[in-house]
Amino acid sequence: MPNQKIRYISATLQTTSIHPSAIISPAAVIGQNVKIGPFTVIDGPASIGDDVNIDGHVLIRGRCTIGARSQIGWGSVIGADPQDLGFDPQTDSGVILGENNRLREYVTIHRATVPNANTIIGNDNFIMTGVHLGHDVVMGSHNILANNILVAGHVVFGDRCVVGGASVFHQFVRIGDYAMVQGMSGLSLDVPPYCLAYEINRLASLNAIGLKRGGFSPEQRSEIKEAFRLLLNGGNREAALKEAETRTWGAAAALLVEAVRHPSKKGILTCVRHPEPPATNNR
């Protein structure tokens, strides 16, 4: 029966190519010019957009939407149950993957824990080998995640973030727009927009090169820098926010101010003022 269904889809969608060993649920909706590799399983009411390329040994399970022109690498799993001991497998939840996303080998994206909710990935993201995106993650667009990154549940990514390989993110944290994270970092606090994070909950500076490449004007970059100095230099946060309220900020800098004013329940990174080294006796 699965082979008959595959032949029926292939005959109906003349430009779609489905390997004979693939198993496609009758509830799935397959777009035009889709390529599905060997031993891939689409199990349930998935919606696969036009021009999607799905490699072999992929599992797409349940209520998943794969946007047009996306690529799903070998061995990836999309829509599996959350790794949550209290999760009810009967919960109606899913995954929404936007358009033009590129997932490499063995990427895993788990469905949401909340009924009628989704784990949501935007457009034009490049997610490299072995990345795990946990349940209820919300990710924007144009992000780059290198190999073997682990993202726990309920993490929120903005747009145009760059994350180095083997980094780990605790649940509920937020990663702001244009943030950059050094490889092998561990984050259990929010990373402010436009900032560089490294090691274990360390904030380095602004992502100045990223802002310049991102097309921010000199005036915008100067104002973002001023907001960074005011709010994230390790001084008194409450006093700095009161000072920020007396100023008028452009939209770009206001995003940074808002992230500091209303962080997640985990809190937000700030630069640590290191004490001066003790004087040495050179006699």
Summarize the SSE layout with pairings:
Elements: H1 2-12, E1 17-18, E2 23-24, E3 29-30, E4 35-36, E5 41-43, E6 47-48, E7 53-54, E8 59-61, E9 63-66, E10 71-72, E11 77-80, E12 94-97, E13 102-103, E14 108-110, E15 118-121, E16 126-127, E17 132-133, E18 138-139, E19 144-145, E20 150-151, E21 156-157, E22 162-163, E23 168-169, E24 174-175, E25 180-181, E26 186-187, E27 195-198, E28 202-206, H2 208-213, H3 218-231, H4 237-245, H5 251-261
Parallel strand pairs: 1-4, 2-5, 3-6, 4-7, 5-8, 6-9, 7-10, 8-11, 9-12, 10-13, 11-14, 12-15, 13-16, 14-17, 15-18, 16-19, 17-20, 18-21, 19-22, 20-23, 21-24, 22-25, 23-26, 25-27
Antiparallel strand pairs: 27-28
Helix pairs in contact: 3-5
Which CATH class of the domain at 2-154?
A: Mainly Beta
How many DSSP helices? Answer: 5
Average predicted confidence as pLDDT = 93
Molecular shape: elongated
In terms of per-residue confidence, which ranges show pLDDT below 50 for 5 or more consecutive residues? 6-13
The CATH homologous superfamily of the domain at 2-154: Hexapeptide repeat proteins
How many distinct beta strands? 28
Structural class determined from secondary elements: alpha/beta
Distance between the termini: 89 Å
Widest sheet: strand ordering? 1-4-7-10-13-16-19-22-25-27-28
Helix share of residues? Answer: 10-25%
